[in-house]
């Protein structure tokens, strides 16, 4: 890779929670106010061509992408707050679970934006989501994925056990099902070994 070349990954945004009527043109109008846009792709069902509710917006300059993320996250388009994240082209980072934090006992009034605002103090957030039921009401828990393990640990240290909107929240490492099963497997092995020894 040419070191002088711009890092396009850093100028690419994922835009989610989109109303199904939103087209590339609507997004172009919105995002080009932050700076020159290279391309926009609304992801659609291959057969029905219906929008899947998310899109990728590529800017020419990383600084403009950053400006869009900082100023437009959770803006309403067609009555729905859009959710903007850095486009995670590196699936290994997403799957590794590095920097993933789980938050529970959240006040029902805390939405994506409020959670983003609380946790962005600890570092760059790749994604942030409050779990919702079919009616769009908060289920009282959510996830934040930080770019670095350090930011995640920092947020756990500072926010776990603290009051957010008068409710004491729990913040801890998000452990994927695979990891949990692995840990259980290790414990089961330990258990059977012990059992055999004391036979």
Automatic annotation (TrEMBL):
GO terms for molecular function: RNA binding. Keywords: Repeat, RNA-binding. The keyword Ligase does not apply. It comes from the Eukaryota. Residues 11-89, 99-176 form the RRM domain. Gene3D superfamilies: 3.30.70.330. PANTHER family: RNA BINDING PROTEIN. This is RRM domain-containing protein.
